[in-house]
């Protein structure tokens, strides 16, 4: 079965024009001025993984459009008792879900769901694969600060391998001709990452990544993922941590983004996190109207 | 059973015989009698027979042998049984299958090897048991090779898992060498493949799936070939070889006259890691679908005579073990009913590999790997196992009609060329299209 119309499973196969349509609609959305586009609809938030910002962002977005939301978390539900992904899907469909928003630790789980359930499925992050709503809100943030994608360069620094945010961002920005430089040690940024999309390049040197860049996107580096690799935490910090001195290498008006949660003292210093160039909280803020647009689109109300 | 029927003779008439072991590739009639090949002669020379099989326009070949099949018995009859698996084998032209011991419990004793052969199992083709190489396939202590060999096991393996420990593998090859008993290796350094679900490459990176590197296979094959070169009479058989690097090791071993044989699967010579769409777990197997350059290397080795056998690694799984998150889904696909057609379609028609070579890969080649005496050829006196197929017949594989209990295949709906017309085991027709 083909995914239901309005599903958002990833950025990779989304047309550039469709991305612009979503962003344009997001600009018209404001959670403080509710619009009942989803009045009486049921949005099922199926979270197989803990999440604070994405979950609450979708929840607020849905509610501000008049939808009911039901949160199902793996822990303490039938999922924990061994119910399969599809059985959970059939169950929430039978309960009357109009939209399923799913966060899952396994890549592709939303695809499996969408192939079997006849309601729109929205991927809220699947394993290492994609995080489309994050890429869209990041694109919105960039556009708010940079006016247009044309001619931009972005440096994405950190654990690319384990990052669905990075994969979705690369797919999205590549569609608009943004030059993308991925930076980090080979264990976290394998050379193969450059095959992800046109215009993506890999470098090991932070100076190389930052020089002349318009956007710096930092990714969290989990300590436990460094263990067993050839690089230890102090070395990572010495080579890749974003500091005011390093940020000077980027363009003067460069912005700093981070999908969160940030770890001060690891991938960035407090001066950067709280600095004038940081857009980290703006990203969180723009997450809500972006997800309003995504939900409206799912119900065919993005007009 | 009725005695008169037992003694019925059957004349396969008008066909084109390809018997690579006997170097025959010509129109020949074949007379089967008392479960053996009684005579092979040019057309119309053999006059009398109780029954005739009209093989005009068809290829007559020695019965196909599959060295690598998971029949799932004992213990996992919800996936497959010996009865259903061998019915699928017969439909695919296989007259003999070697069944893997990673069952529940593991086939690691003489009792279980004998159990596999009991008539109650309902096998319609010959079933040869491969025994576990280590107790319960736990990799710690070797099984009783001598007793298992005597009981009729044709090889030992811990398939599903590798024999990882250097010392255990060395001991297995030494003891196997003394008994002339092949040790079958599932070559995967599992220390490098934890949580991996497909081949490591651009596609796995894009899909966010952890990848099994080619090195995880090649490093084990390299170690094993080195051991086989050092240990007198050791017999190493590499199961489902899938990478160009592992192939290099095997080539080196063969050049050094080590007793190294290996098989490749139809899916590894047909598909690459780029072919999987939308997390379809019917493309998930172990070893995984590899890169295009690995596939090219395997095609070259099939053509130049290096590959010893095509084996299916038929691995049935129930729908509920497959229709799920890709990373959690079971490894393996079914393959018995599509093997010949894939070989003819991909290797013969597209890559121009002669039919005689393809027949060799299904007959004489595998028979040599595991010393299956009297099989793999139709010379006079051989066992009357025969596969008759139409190399030109176009057909569409419909998994709903599969005889296997499980339907996990990526080839459903594929248009293929080459179809089995009849399968004969011990002189009796066990399948006809
Ligand atoms: Zn195996």
Polypeptide structure, described:
Chain A has 12 helices and 9 strands. Chain A has helices at 16-28, 53-63, 85-95, 109-116, 132-146, 164-175, 206-210, 223-226, 233-240, 244-247, 270-273, 280-298, and strands spanning 42-47, 68-73, 99-104, 121-126, 153-157, 179-183, 200-203, 215-218, 255-257. In chain A, the strands form 2 sheets. In chain A, strands 7-6-5-8-9 form a 5-stranded parallel β-sheet. A 4-stranded parallel β-sheet of chain A has the order 2-1-3-4, with helices on both faces. In chain A, helix 1 (16-28) packs across helix 5. Chain A is globular. Chain B has 433 residues and is of the alpha/beta class. An 8-stranded parallel β-sheet of chain B has the order 8-9-10-11-12-15-16-17. In chain B, helix 5 (166-179) links the parallel strand 11 and strand 12. In chain B, helix 5 (166-179) packs across helix 7 (214-230) and helix 7 packs parallel to helix 8 (244-255). Chain A binds chain B through residues 12, 84-86, 104, 106-109, 111-112, 115-116, 126-130, 161, 164, 167, 190, 192-193, 195-196, and chain B through 201-202, 205-210, 278-279, 320, 323-328.
Morphology call of chain A: globular
- Looking at the overall shape, the CATH architecture of the largest domain in chain B is Alpha-Beta Barrel
Could you describe the largest sheet of chain B, including whether it forms a barrel?
A: 8 strands, parallel
**CATH architecture assignment of the largest domain in chain A:** 3-Layer(aba) Sandwich
Going across the major beta sheet of chain A, what is the strand order? 7-6-5-8-9
Number of helices of chain B: 14
Q: Give the integer mean of the pLDDT values of chain A.
A: 95
User: CATH top level of the largest domain in chain B?
Assistant: Alpha Beta
Q: Which strand order do you get reading across the main beta sheet of chain B?
A: 8-9-10-11-12-15-16-17
């Amino acid at each position: 079965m083909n995914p239901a119309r309005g599903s958002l499973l990833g950025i990779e196969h989304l047309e550039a024009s469709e991305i612009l349509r979503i962003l344009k609609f997001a600009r018209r959305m404001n959670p403080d001025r509710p619009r009942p586009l989803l009045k009486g609809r049921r949005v099922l938030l199926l979270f197989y993984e803990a999440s604070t910002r994405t979950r609450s962002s979708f929840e607020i977005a849905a509610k501000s459009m008049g939808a009911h939301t039901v949160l199902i978390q793996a822990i303490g539900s039938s999922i924990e008792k061994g119910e399969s992904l599809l059985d959970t899907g059939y169950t929430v469909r039978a309960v009357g879900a109009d939209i399923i928003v799913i966060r899952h630790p396994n890549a592709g789980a939303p695809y499996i769901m969408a192939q079997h359930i006849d309601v729109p499925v929205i991927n809220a992050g699947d394993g290492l694969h994609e995080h489309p709503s994050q890429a869209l809100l990041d694109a919105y943030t960039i556009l708010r600060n940079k006016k247009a994608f044309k001619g931009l360069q972005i440096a994405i620094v950190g654990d690319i391998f384990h990052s669905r945010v990075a994969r979705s961002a690369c797919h999205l920005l590549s569609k608009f001709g943004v030059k993308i430089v991925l930076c980090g040690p080979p264990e976290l940024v394998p050379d193969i990452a450059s095959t992800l999309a046109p215009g993506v390049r890999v470098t090991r040197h932070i100076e190389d990544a930052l020089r002349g860049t318009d956007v710096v996107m930092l990714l969290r580096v989990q300590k436990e993922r460094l263990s067993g690799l050839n690089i230890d935490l102090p070395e990572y910090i010495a080579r890749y941590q974003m500091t005011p001195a390093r940020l000077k290498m980027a363009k003067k008006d460069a912005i700093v983004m981070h999908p969160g949660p940030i770890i001060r003292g690891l991938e960035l210093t407090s001066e950067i996190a709280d600095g004038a160039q940081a857009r980290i909280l703006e990203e969180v803020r723009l997450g809500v109207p972006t997800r309003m647009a995504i939900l409206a689109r799912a119900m065919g109300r993005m007009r | 059973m009725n005695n008169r029927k037992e003694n019925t003779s059957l004349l396969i008439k008008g066909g084109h015989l390809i018997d690579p072991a006997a170097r025959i590739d010509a129109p020949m009639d074949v007379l089967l009698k008392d479960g053996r090949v009684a005579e092979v002669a040019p057309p119309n020379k053999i006059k009398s027979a109780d029954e005739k099989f009209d093989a005009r326009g068809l290829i007559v070949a020695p019965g196909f042998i599959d060295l690598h099949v998971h029949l799932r018995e004992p213990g996992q009859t919800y996936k497959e049984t010996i009865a259903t698996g061998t019915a699928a084998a017969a439909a695919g032209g296989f007259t003999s299958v070697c069944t893997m011991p990673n069952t529940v419990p593991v086939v690691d004793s003489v009792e279980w090897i004998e159990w596999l052969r009991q008539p109650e199992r309902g096998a319609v083709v010959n079933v040869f048991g491969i025994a576990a190489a280590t107790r319960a396939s736990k990799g710690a202590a070797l099984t009783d090779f001598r007793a298992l060999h005597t009981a009729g096991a044709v090889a030992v393996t811990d398939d599903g898992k590798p024999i990882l420990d250097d010392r255990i593998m060395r001991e297995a090859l030494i003891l196997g060498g003394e008994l002339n008993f092949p040790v079958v290796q599932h070559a995967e350094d599992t220390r490098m493949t934890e949580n991996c679900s497909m081949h490591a490459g651009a596609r796995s990176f894009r899909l966010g799936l952890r990848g099994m590197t080619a090195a995880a296979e090649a490093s084990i094959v390299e170690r094993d070939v080195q051991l086989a070169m050092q240990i007198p009479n050791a017999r190493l058989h590499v199961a489902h070889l899938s990478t160009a690097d592992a192939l290099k090791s095997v080539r080196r071993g063969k050049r050094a006259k080590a007793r190294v044989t290996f098989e490749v699967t139809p899916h590894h010579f047909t598909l690459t890691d780029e072919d999987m769409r939308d997390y379809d777990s019917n493309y998930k197997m172990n070893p995984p679908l590899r890169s295009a350059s690995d596939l090219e290397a395997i095609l070259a080795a099939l053509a130049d005579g290096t590959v010893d056998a095509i084996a299916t690694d038929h691995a049935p799984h129930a729908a509920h073990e497959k229709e799920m998150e890709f990373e959690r889904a079971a490894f393996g696909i079914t393959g018995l009913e599509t093997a010949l057609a894939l070989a003819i379609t991909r290797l013969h028609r597209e890559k121009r590999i002669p039919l005689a070579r393809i027949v060799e890969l299904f007959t004489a080649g595998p028979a040599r790997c595991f010393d299956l005496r009297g099989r793999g050829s139709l010379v006079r006196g051989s066992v009357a196992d025969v596969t008759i197929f139409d190399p030109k017949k176009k057909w569409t594989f419909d998994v709903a009609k599969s005889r296997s209990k499980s339907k996990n295949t990526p080839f459903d709906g594929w248009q293929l060329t080459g179809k089995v017309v009849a399968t004969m085991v011990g002189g009796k027709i066990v399948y006809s299209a």
